[in-house]
Amino acid sequence: MRPSGVQLPFGMMGAMTISGEYTSGMIDATLVATPSRGRVPAAKAMVLSGAAVAGSLLIATGPWRPRRW
């Protein structure tokens, strides 16, 4: 299956979620506040997947939403 143009923003959002903290240097504060390093990527993955599911549902159900204008 070929990726569509709708999937590209979700991939970009995932890359920005992971790399943004490393670029700005805020990952140090995050890892000091949460010493369990496995929790940080898991929490980021949960938030990102929730946003992706919500966005996908909006995109998928867009044509079926009732229009009352």
H/E topology pattern: HHH
- Calculate Rg over CA atoms: 16 Å
Shape: elongated
Which residues sit in consecutive blocks of at least 5 with pLDDT less than 50?
A: none
Average pLDDT reading: 79
Largest sheet: none
Strand composition percent: under 5%
> How far apart are the first and last residues' alpha carbons, in Å?
37 Å
- In DSSP terms (H or I, runs of 4 or more residues), the helix count works out at 3
Structural class: mainly alpha
The number of strands is 0
Q: Brief description of this entry?
A:
The protein has 69 residues and is mostly helical.
Account of the 3D structure:
By secondary structure, this protein is mainly alpha-helical. 68% of the residues lie in helices and 0% in strands. It has helices spanning 7-24, 27-33, 39-60. Helix 1 packs antiparallel against helix 3 (39-60). The model has no long low-confidence stretch (mean pLDDT 79).
Secondary-structure topology with pairs:
Blueprint lengths: L6 H18 L2 H7 L5 H22 L9
List keywords for this structure.
single chain, 69 residues, mainly alpha, elongated
